[in-house]
Queue: 3 jobs
Job 1
Amino acid sequence: MKVVSHLELFAGIGGFRKAIDLLCYDLKMKSNCIGFSEFDSYATETYKANYNTKDEVELGDIYDFTLNKKNIKKLENFDLLTAGFPCQSFSMMGKKLGLNDKRGNIFYSIIKILKVKNPQYFILENVRNLKNHDKGNTYKEIYRSLTEDVDYNISDVVLNTSDFGLPQVRRRIFIIGVCNKNRLSDKVISSEDIVKNFNTIKNSSLNYYKNVKDGILNQSVDEKYYLSEKIKPTILADGSKNYKSKSMINREIARTLTASMVKMHRANQDNYYSDDFFKDDYDDDLFQKKSLNDIAKKRIRKITPLEALKLQGFDESFFINAKNKNLSNHQLYKQSGNAVSVNTVYALLDYLIRKKFFLFK
């Protein structure tokens, strides 16, 4: 049986790991996670509640771990490194400090591990804006580090979660690296080819949803998820004095989940649904033509933590395991917003394996 031996950095709640586990099960391969790093103690609780980490190395804060080269050398050898490294430094919504920000600087922790352990492959995930940050200089430095400081051929591709059976608009860049002694060279990996390959997959272990009504949203939720009359005008407003954007609720394909969604941004940033949305005679065209005052009269709610996790490809048992560890809704919203979409990683890995860019023994 072929084995995918991997190390998950900046693990969050294990989106990469979940995808690898499911794909290995479907392809009759073995998934062997040798360790994981995660700074956030609450995310670590969720991670350990859902995966058997008994014999694995818990790296903790990757910056501190990689300060001592001996720590890296002690790691078991592995074939694949995955990392959803912090995106706050590169995001359109952040201060865009990039590699000058401490969170950006821990990118070099990945380089330290690649240099010592030299795995065959890596997949790094970040926000789509990474390539445009600082007029492209940030990505040039990342590219230089991955090809010169460590000897890898790399390619990158932007993938949208909504193309892979999860109804959420979430575009992320994936940087794929293959050790120079292996295969990738200057091959271009396209999103179109990955989507096409994904659509040929049959009988996978993934959760698929056509839209948010198709198994994501529950028609009946606790009253605490409904917006108060006081906050509705703010949530439904088309921006503010210095920021304008069309407010819209009841989206069949959800907006991008954010780590700060618990703060309840406006409906042009987060996801909200009215009770009308679930009625058999609901007509979205007619609903969206209503005035904000008329819409504000409706009962409107935010999505629940379970629904947020489902939008990222996790199932109800994953949610229950986390809740059994007394994880708060606040933390579960944050973890969902920070997670990598399971189906997207699965689709990318399946393509790389089927096209023999990645070869496992």
Job 2
Amino acid sequence: MKKSLLVLAAIAACGAASAQSTVTLFGVVDAAYRNVANKSVSTTPFGPAYSVKASRTELANSGLSSSRLGFRGVEDLGGGLSASFWLEAPITNDDGATGVSNFTRRSTVSLAGSFGELRLGRDKTATVMNEEQFDPFGDTGIGGSLIIDANEASVPGSGYGSNGTYKRASNMVQYFLPRLGGFYGNVAYGLAEQTRLSPDTAASTNTGRHIGGRLGYTTGPFDIAASYAQNDTSFTTGSGAAAVARPGKVKTFNLGATYDFGVAKLFGEISRSKDERNALNIFTPGQDVDLTGYLLGVTVPVGPGVIRASYSQVKYDFNRVPVFGVNNADPKASKLALGYVHNLSKRTALYGTVARVSNKNGAALTVGAGPSYATTFNRTALQAKSSMGYEFGIRHTF
């Protein structure tokens, strides 16, 4: 009898412990019919003028929300302290080719309490959190952020590569503030995890290191936040024995705000990134490239749905010295996006979006999906001109 009572007590204790822990399977499945057409034009005043269009129609994923599959869990440790994990993987539900093979969207473990949250692992950067929050389209679908696209893409005409850790960074140690009135924010440090030589030589590098932070304030219908990030990076020129790594830093600052009037919610953002990648020598021009951008947007609730619209623009500044008093115009691009989301329930929505990107002076940004621009036609060099797209889809969350 005593043994039976001990067993029952043990089972009850295990049940009480497990009741304090939760593990959740969650995800998004999003599919859209999408068409994108990118137009290129000839760049030379001699010979015939060409206009070439590259277009593609596809069944795509992630038009309204990024398709994903994830696992998260929380354990109550008592005394207001909790431990949690978050593992989130991208999926391509349009073809089923990508599943839970990695957790590159987010893979973190956390300890939280009245002091805030300490989070370790791969996660979004503070600057991208800001940009997604203050853009009606976030960073998803053909209406997604032109500013994020420009920061992730290679800089046109400069020979610089893309900023691979702009959106997400690995090996991060983050601290999130507890809610202090209306204040919120976080700071982050991503380790480079590079091998160090002792004594240090030119071969030692901080490539891959990320430093970032964000501070915001919200009260009633008003929300404002600023963020800063520094990504240590490098770009290799040449090949073999002639390969040379050009280390440097990409520094980004942005400021965003929203105000909800009830009948409409206004969005605004300004952003500036500075690429301070080192030049090979004093004769290499344009070692510093600035990228500035701004966005204005609005959402309007209409019954069970919402209308979304935004206009954004980015401009590259090569900081070039004029030659014989002439300075070539710097590349720039603008984007106009319009969409509607119709909520069938709390978890299921239908949506449609149309967007157009206009490029000038060598910029080559697109609406975020579709084919590449045509660069030559009949032995004539072509330059990106515009990108136009539309998509209609359904999103289900669980």
Job 3
Amino acid sequence: MSVYMKEFMSIYCSFIEEYDAYYVCMDNARFLNHSFTPNLRWDNTKKRYTALKDIDIGEELTSNYMEFDKFSKRGEFGFEIK
């Protein structure tokens, strides 16, 4: 594996032990971070994110992964929450 692919995977991929595989998000959700008090919510009817409040320029975009991701629903975020 090339050094560039290893770097890409270290930044954009999560390893899912249950499947012994890496997961990479290829849609715009990769630009969102998790929050238990998000400023965006996924609207399954419209198939898009909707802002829950006015979002300031430069403010981080957040969603609650537990709303849509089966691993997060089980508390398996792939990262440590502090």
